[in-house]
Design a protein that fits this description.
This protein is an alpha/beta fold. The protein contains 19 helices and 20 strands.
């Protein structure tokens, strides 16, 4: 009989804000046995990540307090408030793969240092051995030619590649428990399967336990043995995957599983007038070409999907179009050559060309309230009337399905899905003509994915918006896009 590795009993976690106490997790109980995979599922904001972060003592950095309950790991009661004792197991016995890799990787350190740091300075492994281990791990998680990329900084990697770097770092110390918080949301379907198979094979090889936090019920079905269903910080139901899949008992579980459906397709009628035209766009990082001579035209009121493997150049192309990274080529927008606009003209025109980033936590300033974040563009353009700013920010939040009452809260108080909706609101408040979405629903559960998809289509029809939609999810591209552009290794295939 397998031993119990982890036992969580009646955990209660609260946030204390200037507007009062928010109970994020209540009476939260579950356990994990040695070598077992357990999945925690629920809607965005249900408390999945809050509970997991508490197991490594990281919630205090988000302003949360564990008020009640206990955590027993390897037969020992953990003192979650004692940083020294928690530090001894964090990263070694319990490792964490975060949902938002760019916010977790140090932008100033190369990936070799970030993966080998604990091996060298805590475990005492030689730098040569740690480097060899780093290359081995990067190969395992699918980074091409890792020997050439050890000294590269995180921003030179795609979103999917950054997540794979995080996975390599987490696996470096062969932990007893690996917590994976939405580990594959940034990856295309092929790499997603490779990563999940890799995690399963490593789990079996080292008798490691795996805690999967996800909104993807297909992942739960194929990779977990037991599942914990969470709603509003409370465990609604917990059972073996087979049992809960065939005979869910709680009404919320039934509702959650009913969201496994096909999203309605978009009207494929193609517009005529051009909203954006790209010619010969090229992006180079040192001796690496991320985007090679890319050209396409986006029609007004239409959506163009850009798909391809992780690292194919999709995000680099988007960042170049909005002038966030250097590039060569031409981008024609609103009758002007956008890449050559002087600073004053760029500030004026950029409001009409917005981007919603893949990693919402990394793109939202943690020191700014939601009001300041959403209204940042208005303020930058000179708006000073606080009433106008508040009304516009509140309406933008309502447009994406959030309450205007959250205006004075901070990004760390929200789930990944909620933060993405805040990012979408920030783009909408500018009243743009073109919006580039980089994996805008990858961090959302299926029900919210469906809601956001419907919202984007409704906004497009009412405001005659044009979208560039970057994704590895072909079902979402099919539901949102009139045309599709396929990229591979920086080059357009079709």
């Amino acid at each position: 009989m397998k031993n119990k590795l982890l036992e969580v009993k009646k955990l209660k976690v609260s946030f204390y804000t200037e507007f009062g106490k928010v109970e994020a997790v209540r009476e939260f109980s579950f356990d994990i046995f040695e070598g077992e995979t357990v999945a925690i599922v629920g809607e965005s904001g249900s408390g999945k990540s809050v509970c997991a972060l508490c197991l490594t003592g990281l919630m205090k950095y988000h302003g949360a307090v564990v008020e009640e309950g206990s955590v027993v790991f390897c037969g020992k009661l953990l003192n979650l408030s004692d940083e020294r004792s928690i530090r001894n197991i964090r990263g070694k016995d319990i490792a964490y793969i975060f949902q938002e890799p760019m916010a977790s990787l140090n932008p100033l350190h190369n990936i070799e240092k970030q993966i080998t740091e604990r091996l060298v300075y805590v475990d005492g492994i030689s730098k040569a051995a740690a480097k060899a281990k780093c290359i081995e791990l990067l190969n395992l998680v699918g980074i091409r030619e890792p020997e050439k990329r050890l000294k590269d900084l995180p921003h030179t990697f795609s979103g999917g590649e950054r997540q794979r770097v995080m996975i390599a770092a987490a696996l470096s110390c062969s932990p007893k428990l690996l917590i994976a918080d939405e580990p594959t949301t940034a990856l295309d379907a092929a790499i997603q399967k490779q990563i999940l198979e890799l995690l399963r094979s490593l789990k079996d090889r080292f008798n490691m336990s795996l805690l999967l936090i996800t909104h993807d019920l297909e992942i739960v079905k194929n990779y977990a043995e037991r599942v914990v269903v969470v709603k509003n910080g409370v465990v609604a139901e917990s059972a073996a995957v087979e049992e809960i899949w065939t005979n869910p008992k709680h009404e919320y579980t039934k509702e959650l599983f009913s969201t496994i459906r096909t999203t309605p397709t978009v009207n494929k009628e193609v517009g005529g007038e051009t909203a954006l035209k790209v010619q010969g766009l090229t992006v180079r990082y040192k001796d690496f070409t991320a985007v090679n001579n890319l050209s396409f035209t986006l029609a007004k009121g239409n959506s163009l999907g850009i798909v391809g493997d992780s690292g194919s150049g999709k995000t680099s192309a988007a960042l170049a179009i909005v002038r966030l990274i250097p590039s060569t080529g031409k981008v024609f927008f609103r009758g002007k050559e956008f890449l050559k606009l002087p600073p004053d003209d760029l500030l004026r025109e950029r409001r009409y060309l917005q981007m919603v980033f893949q990693d919402p936590y990394g793109s939202l300033n943690p020191r700014m309230t939601v009001r300041m974040i959403v209204a940042e563009g208005l303020i930058a353009r000179g708006e000073r009337d606080k009433r106008i700013i508040s009304l516009a920010a509140g309406q933008a939040l309502l447009d994406v399905g959030l309450e205007s009452g959250i205006l004075e809260r901070y990004p760390h108080e929200f789930s990944g899905g909620q933060r993405q909706r805040i990012a979408i609101a920030r783009a909408l408040i500018q009243k743009p003509e073109v919006i580039i979405f980089d994996e805008p629903t990858s961090s959302l559960d299926r029900n919210v994915q469906f809601q956001i998809t419907e919202l984007l289509k409704d906004l497009q029809e009412r405001r005659l918006l044009s979208y560039i939609f970057i994704s590895h999810d072909l079902n979402l591209v099919h539901s949102l896009c009139h045309e599709v552009l396929v990229m591979k290794k920086g080059t357009r295939l079709s």
